[in-house]
Amino acid sequence: MALIRASSPLSRELQRVFPSRPFQVRFWDGNVAAATEEGAPTFYIRKPTALAHFLAAPGTLGLGRAYVDGSLAVDDLDGAFVVVDEWEPPALGLGDRARLGLAIAAAAAPGGLPKRPGLELILRGERHSAERDAAAVRYHYDVGNEFFALFLDESMTYSCAIFSRGAKTLEEAQRAKLELIAGKLELEPGMRVLDVGCGWGSFAIHVAREHGVSVLGITLSEQQAALARRRVEEAGLSDSVEIRVSDYRALPRASFDAIASIGMAEHVGDSQIDVYAGTLLGLLRPGGLLLNHAIAALDPDAEPLEDLFSTRYVFPDGEPLPLSRIQLALERAGFHTEHVEGFREDYAETLRHWARRLDEHIGEAEALAGVQRTRVWRLYLRAARHGFTTALTAVYQVRARRPA
Question: Exposure string (b/e) for 204-231, b if CB count within 10 Å is 16 or more?
């Protein structure tokens, strides 16, 4: 009597309803739904739990949960993103959908009801309140400074590098970005600069050293601030650079000559973007310049934030806004926009470098952050790159001036 494997009905249904398959599926019990195209990625369903995750949260969140807990694996992450985002399966009738759903449910049954991976974060409280924003930032950056150092350049710059102006290495491209922003802000010796979302201090250190300005850098991450202060001290710039743990909304009114906000506005959210713009205007002297460098959403039909894998596992409450929304907030606050420049392809290249570097240090990453979190980051860096290469997202630098 032939052995009937648990996944056999599902394997047959996949091959029946999807006669053309740009992917291969290998099941835990040996069944294979082969691809019909050469070079197609293979999805390994290692446990029935993977199917249960997909039933509990159909779409990218369910797939992401299964990948994080190891019940789903792929041999080509980049190829898998192409399948998930671009493959258009044939329209299925009600009967075919029911048969496929029953086959998935039957194969998933041995796995039982899945538990969300422990890494998944669901924040409570008012979205984009100071307290919730702080919790979101801590979740992201408390992975550890040593973990980020595995894939960032030596300056620990954690934003889009600029390759399109001749840089060949990641280090060169990040220096080019820092200098480009300094130039757009028209920095001169003796000026006072605010660095909103200063990270590990790369911009603050660069402009203090190269342009003779004094800088206040703010972050919500204690771990970031500790390393940034140490790097400032090692650079001999303690008299010029102060790193403070603070929300931008908590800063007292001041008179800065220039403000840099690099990779921070995408965490502000639509509900607070007008407050953000108005707060920064109030911190600038008349005639002062703001450089806002942020990821922008280009697809108005993107799935809701609550269903996105990255908001649960990487950037809680991350909310890239359309460029037009950023512009509207700046104009409402009273800024005059002087220059806008996009770097979508540069960010795709930056993420290619980061993903490769993380892969080269995979053992160290797992030792520092654990196997599951390392899976999250390998997935996230490629997902983000795919978003830029397919024009789902972009990044823009907006230079705006407070009128005199």
Answer: bbbbbeebebbbbbbbbbebbbebbbeb
Burial of 162 (0-12, 13-18, 19+ CB in 10 A): buried
Q: What is the pLDDT of residues 154-170, one digit of tens each?
A: 999 999 999 999 999 99
CA distance 20 to 18: 5
Question: In terms of pTM, does the model score above 0.85?
Answer: yes
Cα distance between residue 379 and residue 318, in whole Å: 17
Residues across the chain: 404
Return the HEC string of 33-58: ECCCCCCCCEEEECCHHHHHHHHHCC
- Tell me if residue 116 falls in helix, strand or coil: coil
3-state secondary structure at position 80: helix
Q: In what order do the strands lie in the sheet with 284-297?
A: 241-245, 214-219, 192-196, 256-262, 284-297, 393-401, 336-342
Of the pLDDT bands very low, low, confident and very high (cuts 50, 70, 90), residue 67 is very high
Handedness of CA 159, 164, 169, 173 (dihedral sign): negative
d(CA 292, CA 277): 10
Domain 130-401: which CATH number of 3.20.20.80, 3.20.20.220, 3.40.50.1820, 3.40.50.150: 3.40.50.150
Query: How far, in Å, CA of 230 to CA of 375, rounded?
Result: 30
| Sign of the four-CA dihedral 377, 381, 382, 384 | positive
Q: Residue 317 has what pLDDT?
A: 87
Number of H helices, E strands in the chain: 16, 11
The radius of gyration computed from the CA coordinates of the chain, to the nearest angstrom, equals: 24
CB 282 within 8 A of CB 254: no
CA-to-CA distance for 21 and 33, rounded, in angstroms? 9
- Give me the sign of the Cα torsion angle 140, 141, 147, 150: positive
The full set of domain ranges for the chain reads 8-111, 130-401
Amino acid at 384: A
Closest CA to 185 of 307, 107, 292: 292
Residue type, 141: Y
CA 398 – CA 340 distance, rounded (Å): 5
Q: How far is CA 191 from CA 188, 258, 337, 352, in A?
A: 6, 8, 21, 36
